[in-house]
Amino acid sequence: MKSRIDSLVRAATPGQSGFRLLLSGRDAFNARAEAIAQATESLDLQYYITHDGISTRLLLGELLQAANRGVRIRLLLDDFASDARDHRILLSAAHPNIEMKVFNPPNKGRKRATTRPLGRLLELPHQHRRMHNKLLLADRNLVVMGGRNLGDEYYDADPERNFVDIDLLCVGPVASDFSASFETYWQHSLAVPIDQCLRKSIKRFGRRHQPRPLAQEIDDACNKEPDQCSLLTAYRRTPQLVTWLDQLVWATGTALWDPPGKLATASGPDEDQMMTAPLLPVAQGVRRELMLVSAYFVPTWAGLAYLSDCVGRGVSVRVLTNSLEATDVPLVHGGYQPYRKALLNAGVRLFEMRKKPATHSRYRLADTPVSLHSKAVVFDNRQVFIGPLNLDPRSVLWNSEVGVLVDSPTLANAVRQLVAEGQSGTVSYEVEVDGSAQSAGLVWNYEDDQGRALKLKREPANPWRRFNAWLARLLRVEPFL
């Protein structure tokens, strides 16, 4: 694979990188699994969340096989969302060729489950700042990046909930840049070797029974869910990565990332050093259309002013986010609710993804509820930004983030079409101000499976979700959402 990528890069226009969208959970999983299986020198993985599940176990199995081939593997995980029991399966893959670090663990109490929450609470000013980066780098010349973490819900493999997301397969100069970003985080003082965070040292590969636990975990998962296992391992029977490399869109791309020191500052980050700084001129230069996709959307008053100004200049502005019934974090929705009417009155169109889209939609996965997890911005149908960055204060101010800005009408149009489908009445509610009501409330417009136009005058959600959203407004926690 490495030689194939090198030849593609040499044949491309100097300075351009190759990109391919990974829209389905299956494609996103296959890209990661095949990249690991075909790596010959190194694998670097950087993730915010690592959940146990059949998909994670299969990927870890591929990592262990790569380590056996002599591939050098480094795992860098945010400590807040991937600690405790989720490390059990990672530790079972301990190997001389595998190094693992956790990012920003608490200084006190980390080694015991009973004291870990207290340790985080005592260090709250730093513990609420998390490494939200999501990257998989193979041989430093191929990257899979975007919104997906590691866990069944990100790869259409969870019977309870699945996330709608966007990933990118990248090769070329941006891959080298992302490799440099990983190295910066890996070497930072907040990246702590896992051995220092555990009560007992990791037993190294080769000691008694070490390879067996992970193999048994994989067998158990596949025996329990044979159909799911067959779907996830289809890449072994029909590999796709080589074909995808021939389908790359070549364009100028800019890799962007926050410096890891953003999480270590005592006060707010330096705006000039934030990943969002290079995006501001692009955002301010929009002339015709702005399409925003954000799983968690809290625009703040500054964002409201910007979007209102765009509409005032004749720019068509559309936002796709989660509905209260679909979001996995109702508290964040509570931070978004106060801005809706002002956005609508300014001329911004708001779309909220439904928990269960119509049966004939690509967004419907059998009877499994879905939740939007995508993050993307399309500028004038020419440039597109993709990454894990949500449009909310937490992502901009407190978390570290990563992303890529691509100048490609072809790629931008593909994302635009995907978003447009997500904004259809069969997939999402379009929220509008109810002009017929004296109180000028909101209505949620949508279509049923037969294409009939329907309308709700009360926000779709159960009482518990309504309570959580109300609580966020009551506690005024918007700056931390």
Automatic annotation (TrEMBL):
Database matches in SUPFAM superfamilies: Phospholipase D/nuclease
* A Pfam match: PLDc_2
PANTHER family for the chain: CARDIOLIPIN SYNTHASE, CARDIOLIPIN SYNTHASE C
**What is the designated name of this protein?**
Phospholipase D family protein
Q: Where is the PLD phosphodiesterase domain?
A: 127-154, 368-395
